[in-house]
Amino acid sequence: xxxxxxxxxxxxxxxxxxxxxxxxxxxxxxxxxxxxxxxxxxxxxxxxxxxxxxxxxxxxxxxxxxxxxxxxxxxxxxxxxxxxxxxxxxxxxxxxxxxxxxxxxxxxxxxxxxxxxxxxxxxxxxxxxxxxxxxxxxxxxxxxxxxxxxxxxxxxxxxxxxxxxxxxxxxxxxxxxxxxxxxxxxxxxxxxxxxxxxxxxxxxxxxxxxxxxxxxxxxxxxxxxxxxxxxxxxxxxxxxxxxxxxxxxxxxxxxxxxxxxxxxxxxxxxxxxxxxxxxxxxxxxxxxxxxxxxxxxxxxxxxxxxxxxxxxxxxxxxxxxxxxxxxxxxxxxxxxxxxxxxxxxxxxxxxxxxxxxxxxxxxxxxxxxxxxxxxxxxxxxxxxxxxxxxxxxxxxxxxxxxxxxxxxxxxxxxxxxxxxxxxxxxxxxxxxxxxxxxxxxxxxxxxx
Length: 448
Ligand code: NAP
Ligand code: MG
Fold this sequence. Notes:
The chain is an alpha/beta fold.
């Protein structure tokens, strides 16, 4: 008689949760030849979690293995410098896929509330529509939690960046995700995107892009009473309070805006400086922007370039002072816009209200903290922001009053587990981490 121990879970024989066993009887002589553990709800749960996580871990590993190819592809179709493509465009998706491999294993998909058991179940079929500015990240930030939740997904990527989306589909295939779980349809927004949002077989529409299109997607979803998540534009404020390290706050702020050629929805495109430090800050910002010179890539296409140039012209026409960059570029090919700083921007100007989506920083002057708060909160957007102060408490107190989804305190680092999403017209719902996972779950309560 052999007493076997353990369950084969996550690549190893693990002790069973309970003491009970199953006897294995030889029917020829009725002898008990062995026992195996009798699995409980906990054993099944651990095994299912491992099975879920494994798919995502495999996907993470393929993304890691193909990092260089991903970086080169993003550089080729988006135009970002190779180093940025390697660290951010290829690197962040590995971290996000990995975070969901862990969350799939650790998340409590069942909880007890009084006399009820509350089950978290997959929403169903997800229709995902993504933009071009962080083309792989935006696909992974929807696909990984969808898979962790047990959903299936159809992705329509941006027309400008379909190649990295195709590469991702290959990675999904290579990772052994079952047929039909992930699907990719390249196509144009008003045709393929709209068809996906309108499809009655889609249970949740998850969209990232402009507020204008997001509003339409939201209306379509509301008409069909289906769930919708909208990750939209921003016009975030970088608030530099008088006690802050001014040079650091300005330099980090400029880098934040110029990165990815300004094509970042959460960029701090409005820098708010106290009037006593204003001239010094403008000088520092102009210097920092000039230093970028050629190190930023082009914009994604001619339309975006023209749009951004139009905003620079409009800013100057409305009274802003050009202190760096402008319409000239040393390039004779490519959709380049020089790193640009507009000073003397006032809150009512178009460039202070609308999303420019290019390497253009607006520097605004405030009188006191209340004025800074009014200016910071004075747009329809509320996606991100930053606060710099002499001490952390003062920065946090100010951040609490900001109408925005995330705030970096004195240069806080990006956290791929922290919820990402907007207040006001910057969106509905949250991505990343456990908050991102719950977007893909719906609850069922069982009463006992
Ligand atoms: P967009 O038009 O909102 O595109 C985002 C996604 O939606 C793309 O896949 C797009 O397809 C699709 N789409 C477009 N029209 C659609 C429709 N009627 N129904 C369903 N899907 C539709 O954004 P964009 O044209 O790429 O950029 C325009 C502006 O949006 C930028 O200047 C910037 O201000 C903002 N933007 C914001 C973000 C962000 O992360 N918040 C990202 C990108 C852009 P196509 O690619 O075929 O158009
Ligand atoms: Mg478009």
